[in-house]
Design brief:
Layout lengths: L2 H11 L1 H12 L5 H12 L3 H16 L3 H10 L4 H11 L19 H10 L12 H10 L9 H10 L18 E4 L4 E2 L2 E2 L9 E4 L1 H7 L4 H4 L16 H15 L6 H5 L1 H42 L1
Antiparallel strand pairs: 1-4, 2-3
Length: 307
Amino acid sequence: MDDNQLIRTLNSVGKSSFVRYLKLCEDESLSNTEIADQIEEESGYTRNSCLSRTSHLRSILRAGLRNKALEIIIESSVRERIKRLAKALLNESENDEVFFLPHEQFEMSASEKDKYLAAFQMPTVINITTRTSSITNAFINSIIPVITPSINDIREALAILALEPESLLCAYCGDPSTEWDHLRAIVKDKRPTGYISEIRNLVPACGKCNQSKGNKEWSIWIVGDAPQAPKQRGIQDLEARMQRLHKYEEWGDVKPLNLEELIGEDLWEQHWKHWDTILRHMNEAQSTAVEVRQRVLDRLSSKSTDD
């Protein structure tokens, strides 16, 4: 795993999740499923997300990059509490550190200090502009046509993929299917690709494959080194699966639509003008929010000094 792969894998785990669940994942007596059970109970993340985070975190541990990942977290723009915990994990061998609490002084080892730091979690400060990607995806997905398939379309699609409707499996890896994935991405570089939601562009998929594939070209991704990609998970019958997927592409013969040409330049520009206006207002609102928060803190600080 090179540096770029490490950063991508760490981002898949989430920096705060890496710090919070590192010790749990280091426990070799626990399986990935048992760890995911605990994470799901504590965090409220979806089941697939918990399994994915666990697998990515343990892949970093297997690569011997535990400390390097912690160093990346310390140098990143995460919350100070996460940085403190990452530093403590990086320096956990220094057990003779003395830590003093205010008002009463207690001598503590680093591990005891970590317990207190881990017990407190400051709510995340909401940044309005972090929602811009959600807004962009909403603007794209809201204009993508959705065409409901006929029963015969569904039957033919499953026949080509050699799948049974009673026990639907992922077309990419063979695990139980949880959703239908766009074979060709409908969003790329913050713009619609021209592909739409229709059965000839949809295949049954599991959560691991759907999250791992993202908007990548399926035929490159499936044999690539992305975390949770079928080849990385050791799926044995990839060649047969790829042959079926290529046949599925031929059956669909789906071509991207020129949406702007179909609806007209004026309406197209109006849609994206609305998008640009909302993002601009979000940036302005974020600046105002920061000023409001700082002014409240200043007033509280001033009141504390007066008291």
